[in-house]
């Protein structure tokens, strides 16, 4: 029996079609109305006791009378040595609109033109306007759905690609740039109010069309950079075709090295796959650093992403990358939740019986759902009955995808959704607590080692900040009802088992039938 849903006061609808998690729409309210609040976990008979070896909590932070944090989504971030969060790029509004030409669906003034340093404990913040840096740097630093990697050993932060407006405002492009700087130096400069000339002197930029990717992810593995999946989109975004843009999916992961002096590519290769459903034809999914539970070696894991050929639907089987030729896929696996980019907390649990990886995903946009309030369900049903091309719905569910060292998979739903059944999590990644690595409670790539956390002890795993927030799973009014959030959650993991709901109890959001007009 499915659990009794929480009660929600009436909300305003919004518009969504899945193009990319790089998005913006009009904000209709500053905050959502709180839910009415009975804990529902005790009412759900689907819970399996001790299904997960850990307990995870998401605690919203409140900074009292301090200035509100910026509302942002589709940015890139890193944590400095002081535990502060560096943020670049992204957008200040929610999902992009879907108006036909000649409308502008990515408004110019919604791009984030600031670099931010945010203290997630005290709520203090510092900023620097990138428009002071000149066109070459300022335009790509205001793009959305960039790719970035922070190399903690050298402290170099690399920002690659992204989709944004040209400096002259004439059109939108995917930038073929790589920008490099030392995170500690930039953090200190921003916090001290250094002049633009000093900030600019800390940055270096390189150009190469092979780096023109948006909606993918950037990593370093075994000394090489991996630019995984994504697309190149130049021109004005249109939902269902047009003549004022070009689009090309990467259909590959690109492996390269950079000259440390010039940032020119010194070695390059691209691994492609031409399977029946084009398994590398993915963008805007969850791609992150992980560990192979069978070998204990680092890998890159891809969960979800869009779009499968011929349907409005995401990919539901994982891809594991360990080298240019080391790719493992299993199309018999069917991941139900969170096909679009959202925060993912990865936990490694080694026992005498088995070793497993647990990927806990926070909301986002999904092929399945479990928790909806009565008002959310009414809008969802209305949109579904109309047969609209609304893509996949926003969800409030928190799910966990498990892979064991023996190659088996399980998926669970947390008994409690995001507090208040808020539809949060889209277009952001998890910001891990890097101090766990120094404390030997995490691998060098940030994956948490549960067996290194004392039994019953609670640790700060990291933070979730911003993202797209939606009024309803599907829109009730086209092009309205989403906004960029400024909520910041501290994420805690306790080494004690918790109950969870098998994902088989979830409901599929769409039947996956081919539609005549497909998004890009």
UniProtKB/TrEMBL annotation:
Organism in which the protein naturally occurs: Algoriphagus chordae
> Does the UniProt entry include the keyword Signal?
yes
Q: Give the protein's recorded name.
A: Uncharacterized protein
Give the range the annotation lists for the signal sequence: 1-20
Q: Does the keyword Signal apply?
A: yes
Q: Which UniProt keywords apply?
A: Signal
Which SUPFAM superfamilies is this protein grouped with?
A: Galactose oxidase, central domain
């Amino acid at each position: 029996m499915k659990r009794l849903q929480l009660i929600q006061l009436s909300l305003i609808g919004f518009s969504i079609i899945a193009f990319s998690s790089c998005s913006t729409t009009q904000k209709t309210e500053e905050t959502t109305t709180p839910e009415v609040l009975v804990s529902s976990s005790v009412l759900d008979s689907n819970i399996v006791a001790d299904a997960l070896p850990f307990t995870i909590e998401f605690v919203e932070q409140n900074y009292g009378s301090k200035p509100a944090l910026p509302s942002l989504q589709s940015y890139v971030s890193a944590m400095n040595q002081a535990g502060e969060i560096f943020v670049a790029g992204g957008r200040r509004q929610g999902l992009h609109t879907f108006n036909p030409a000649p409308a502008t669906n990515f408004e110019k003034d919604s791009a984030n033109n600031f670099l931010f340093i945010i203290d997630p404990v005290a709520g203090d913040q510092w900023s620097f306007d990138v428009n002071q840096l000149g066109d070459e740097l300022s335009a790509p630093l205001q793009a959305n759905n960039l790719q970035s990697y922070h190399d903690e050993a050298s402290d170099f932060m690399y920002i690659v690609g992204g989709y944004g407006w040209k400096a002259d405002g004439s059109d939108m492009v995917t930038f073929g740039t790589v920008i490099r700087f030392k995170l500690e130096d930039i953090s200190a400069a921003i916090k001290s109010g250094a002049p633009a000339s000093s900030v600019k002197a800390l940055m270096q930029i390189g150009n190469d069309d092979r780096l023109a990717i948006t909606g993918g992810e950037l990593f370093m593995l075994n000394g090489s950079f991996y630019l995984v999946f994504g697309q190149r989109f130049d021109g004005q975004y249109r939902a269902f075709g047009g003549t004022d843009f070009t689009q090309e999916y990467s259909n590959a992961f690109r492996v390269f090295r950079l000259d440390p002096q010039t940032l020119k590519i010194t070695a390059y290769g691209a691994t492609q796959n031409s399977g029946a459903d084009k398994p590398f034809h993915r963008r805007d999914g969850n791609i992150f650093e992980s560990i192979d539970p069978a070998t204990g070696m680092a890998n890159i894991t891809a969960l979800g992403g869009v779009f499968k050929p011929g349907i409005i639907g995401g990919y539901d089987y994982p891809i594991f990358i360990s080298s240019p030729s080391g790719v493992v896929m299993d199309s018999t696996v069917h991941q139900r939740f969170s096909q679009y980019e959202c925060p993912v907390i990865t936990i490694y649990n080694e026992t005498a019986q088995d070793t497993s990886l647990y990927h806990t995903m926070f909301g986002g946009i999904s092929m399945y759902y479990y928790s909806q309030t009565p008002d959310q369900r009414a809008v969802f049903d209305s949109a579904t009955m109309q047969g609209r091309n609304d893509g996949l719905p926003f969800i409030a569910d928190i799910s966990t995808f498990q892979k064991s060292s023996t190659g088996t998979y399980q998926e669970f739903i947390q008994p409690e959704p995001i507090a208040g059944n808020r539809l949060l999590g889209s277009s952001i990644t998890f910001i891990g607590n890097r101090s766990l690595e120094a404390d030997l409670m995490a691998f060098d790539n940030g994956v948490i080692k549960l067996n290194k956390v004392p039994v019953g002890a609670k640790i700060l795993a990291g933070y979730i900040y911003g993202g797209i927030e939606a009024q309803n799973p599907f829109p009730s009014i086209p092009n309205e009802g989403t906004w960029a959030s400024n909520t910041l959650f501290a994420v805690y993991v306790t080494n004690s088992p918790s109950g969870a709901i098998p994902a088989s109890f979830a409901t599929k959001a769409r039947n996956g039938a081919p539609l005549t007009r497909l998004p890009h």
